[in-house]
Amino acid sequence: MDIIDTKSMSKDDILRLLDRASTIGPSDALSGRVLGLLFFEPSTRTRMSFDAAVKRLGGDTVDMGSVDSSSVQKGETLADTVRVVEGYADALVLRHPREGAPRLASQFVDVPVINAGDGAGHHPTQTLLDLYTVRENVDASLGDLHVGIMGDLKYGRTVHSLALALAKFGARVTFVSPPSLRVPENVRTELERAGVEFDEVEVIDGIVGSLDVLYATRIQKERFPDEKEYEKVAGEYRVTTETLESARDDLVLMHPLPRVDEIAPGVDETEHAHYFEQAHNGVPVRMAVLDTVM
Amino acid sequence: MDIIDTKSMSKDDILRLLDRASTIGPSDALSGRVLGLLFFEPSTRTRMSFDAAVKRLGGDTVDMGSVDSSSVQKGETLADTVRVVEGYADALVLRHPREGAPRLASQFVDVPVINAGDGAGHHPTQTLLDLYTVRENVDASLGDLHVGIMGDLKYGRTVHSLALALAKFGARVTFVSPPSLRVPENVRTELERAGVEFDEVEVIDGIVGSLDVLYATRIQKERFPDEKEYEKVAGEYRVTTETLESARDDLVLMHPLPRVDEIAPGVDETEHAHYFEQAHNGVPVRMAVLDTVM
Amino acid sequence: MDIIDTKSMSKDDILRLLDRASTIGPSDALSGRVLGLLFFEPSTRTRMSFDAAVKRLGGDTVDMGSVDSSSVQKGETLADTVRVVEGYADALVLRHPREGAPRLASQFVDVPVINAGDGAGHHPTQTLLDLYTVRENVDASLGDLHVGIMGDLKYGRTVHSLALALAKFGARVTFVSPPSLRVPENVRTELERAGVEFDEVEVIDGIVGSLDVLYATRIQKERFPDEKEYEKVAGEYRVTTETLESARDDLVLMHPLPRVDEIAPGVDETEHAHYFEQAHNGVPVRMAVLDTVM
Predict the structure, then answer these.
(1) Which are the catalytic amino acids of B?
(2) Which one of A41, A214, A281, C57 has the fewest beta carbons within 10 angstroms of its own beta carbon?
(3) Closest Cα of chain A to B199: distance in Å?
(4) What per-residue confidence (pLDDT) applies to A71?
């Protein structure tokens, strides 16, 4: 069983994984099993949390290390690399800058392949841990929620998958972004085709009071033609204690981290701050995934 | 017990390791034991398969990491480095650009040293996994085989050790290469001194039908004065389904990988393709080695 | 319990760790536990010996890897990084170029933080393994010893902590250095305030015969305005068999390694050479620390 994207997973598949994550604890379930880590681009947290997850289950990892020092440098194809490495491991975690690489890889090997991010494509375990964090912190079912997603919605791969997954469960989604960073046309089309209720606004003030969840994303300086423009946008979409004054007491504030200026440090002390917990949730969610596929 | 080269191992030593490799499975044999990985130059597969091997046996590794960030940068001698690291591990795997480095290292430490490649020198676990792959896939004994070794035979460290090891078992070896990439004089002399039957040809066509094993090697672009010359040679020594038309059905095709153009992808689908299996055999062979020396 | 420096540890705390180190052996005490390694600057030995230590106790590590490829590059604060990583590990080992970073980090996380070197600050497990090596090799109690500390005493973080720790136990310390590399004013003040007996000399000849321990340190070429000056100093403070001619038979010679020219290779063969053993002692001492805090 491969984990390539959440789009192709059924609601039941997803809920089964989230349920498993909420009960899973340290064990010897994967004792003697080896997980291959193939990160064709760096992603420290994702790598570390997969590493921690398999070790919590008594298993271990073998790590390809950085691409600079690997056979990829000698002109080897992805297909060859994964066919070699499958001999060293019982499952492969693949991070690749090229969209579609994990699916391609999965066609060449017999061991399970887990997509740990493929360029502008998917990052299913991130989506799962986002859903998990929402679910663990709200009383309502996912379908009854109003989720605000704010920031860079154009380039933010994370939020596209999350929006589609939330849509699958019937949640109402409001996108909050400057016009230049709106959700791209193809994602909007996909959401509409899925019959999803969503709206788009430019400022959060009017809706913050009705949100169950506010998901802020990183706004990357390098997307802007000049620094002034960046600073203006970053300032307007920064979450501060003031932003949250009209929020409900139980609003769940999330962020995929690392943050730069998107959330003011003062917010960390509030009950809304769930982004560190969200990062930590990578471990039980990936434990559940590994326990299921390995 | 150190593993420095296969040249100094007896036939019985080698066969004992190959026999062990063919029966070894996951166990707790090395539980609590730590293998030190010292790669003074990168070699992803060798490192990963040693890593997988020790973990399959319940042991673990400590890895020096890249030389850039190590004490070597501060001017430390190899002798000092290994004398420090032996305190952290029960055996050392050493990859070094300088020929003879592993033997030198072994004189300074009490723990076993395994040579994982020393420049133009040896790479005994590669030779062992090559022999293992041959042995697992032919019905005849090694002494009755006709093995073709093709490609860059001048710089290919792998094939020199393999040729000498095959010679030790009495196999007949035919070298196939362009004149500019012939087996060097000193290797030929060594083979002659060992009383080995070998011949050299420039094209494979005449002999492919009589081969039990064809071992293709990587032809490195950087060995050629100009790209045109490289492309001409690479084209002539490329193994395709056509090359194999007159081959016996049970011809075993091997390659140390990574390949670039030396074997056409279409060959992967044939029964001749044993190069991925060969790479995978690094794990049981290294398990057998570790189980023996640690 | 955090391990930030030895200054704030009582004599009893220290002795308890040293006693534990002298009896600790491989076990499953940390089975299922994960140690997070956060090296914001490289330190191969310290990293490897922590890695070996936790694995000897049946635990495992997750490693942030190099800073170049981590979220730090994206502008993340240290506080955020450690708050994320604490979700992956049961304790954190932190190496950081900035003095005070480990203490800062410890204020943001609930798991124990172990300082593995913070710039010009402290490196408590190094100090502990130095003390351990002294203690294992002398018959007298620490308070009765005469310890010479020689070389670069201005920039050598290691020796400042060691001198203060020895002082705590009442040892007599003699510093041996050129005027340009004397112990800095603030360390001298601290020693005086602690009521410590110490003196400073420029040459070792007059005192070598009375020493129980001689601790040589690395003299770094880059501290000198020109190479000639470096060579002159390095030559005068180099320990050779001649230096040790008037030493007592049981003089314990130590060095934090890596050495360049500070100790002549011929000294390695003498009974005085304890620097490799000292490096190896990093493992039991760190095992004792981990066993205590995790």
Answers:
(1) 45-46, 74, 95, 123
(2) A41
(3) 31
(4) 64
At C189, which helix (H) or strand (E)?
helix C185-193
- Per the prediction, chain A carries an average pLDDT of 93
User: Which active-site residues of A does the annotation give?
Assistant: 45-46, 74, 95, 123
Let me know whether A254 and A288 are in one domain.
no
Cβ contact (<8 Å) for A87 and B279?
A: yes
Which tokens go with A236? Answer: 């307007």
Query: Residue A4 corresponds to which tokens in the numbers above?
Result: 């390539």
Q: Distance (Å, rounded) from C-alpha B232 to C-alpha B219?
A: 11
Residue A86: list chain B partners with CB under 8 A.
Answer: 280
| Sign of the CA dihedral running C76, C77, C78, C80 | negative
Residues C20, C109, single domain; the answer is yes
Would you call A276 an interface residue with chain B, using a CB distance cutoff of 8 Å? Answer: no
Q: Is residue B4 part of a domain?
A: no
State the CATH number of the domain containing residue B90.
3.40.50.1370
Cβ distance C44 to B70 less than 8 Å, yes or no, reads yes
**What residues contact residue A160 under an 8 Å CB cut-off, 6+ apart?**
A183, A187
Give yes or no: residues A154 and A264 share one domain: yes
pLDDT in tens, chain A (294 residues): 999 999 999 999 999 999 999 999 999 999 999 999 999 999 999 999 999 999 999 999 999 998 776 666 677 899 999 999 999 999 999 999 999 999 999 999 999 999 999 988 899 999 999 999 999 999 999 999 999 999 999 887 788 899 999 988 999 999 999 998 999 998 899 888 888 779 999 999 999 999 999 999 988 887 787 888 888 888 889 999 999 999 999 999 999 999 988 999 999 999 999 999 999 999 999 999 999 999
What is the rounded CA–CA span in Å between residue B142 and residue B166? Answer: 7
Kindly state whether residues A117 and A162 are assigned to the same domain.
no
Q: State whether residue B29 sits within 8 Å of chain A by CB.
A: no
CB contact (8 A) between residue A75 and residue B282: no
- Interface ipTM above 0.90: yes
Contact indicator for A217, A159 with CB cutoff of 8 Å:
yes
| Cα B145 to Cα B139: distance, rounded to the nearest angstrom | 10
Binding site residue list of A for carbamoyl phosphate? 45-46, 95, 123, 126, 257-258
Those residues with Cβ within 8 angstroms of residue C110's Cβ, 6 or more apart along the chain or in another chain:
C86
Q: Is C188 annotated as a binding residue?
A: no
CA A204, CA A215: separation in Å to the nearest integer?
12
CA angle B2, B4, B9 (to 5 degrees): 85
In a domain, A6, yes or no: no
Q: Pick from A123, A119, A62, A69: which is nearest to A91 by CA?
A: A62
Preceding omega of C256 cis (within 30 degrees of 0): no
* Structural domain of C75: 11-121+281-293
- C130 CB within 8 Å of a chain B CB: no
Q: How many domains does chain C have?
A: 2
Of B55, B257, B260, the CB nearest to A84: B257
Q: Is C84 on the interface with A (CB under 8 A)?
A: yes
- For chain A, give me the number of helices (H) and strands (E)? 10, 9
In a domain, B3, yes or no: no
DSSP C67: G
Asked if C47 reaches chain B (Cβ–Cβ under 8 Å), the answer is: yes
Sign of CA dihedral B153, B158, B161, B165: negative
C42/B70 Cβ within 8 A: yes
Does residue B85 register a pLDDT over 90? yes
Whether C111 and C62 map to the same domain: the answer is yes
In a domain, A15, yes or no: yes
**First and final CA of chain C: distance in angstroms?**
8
Q: How confident is the model at residue C222 (pLDDT cuts 50, 70, 90)?
A: confident
Asked if residue B100 has pLDDT above 80, the reply is yes
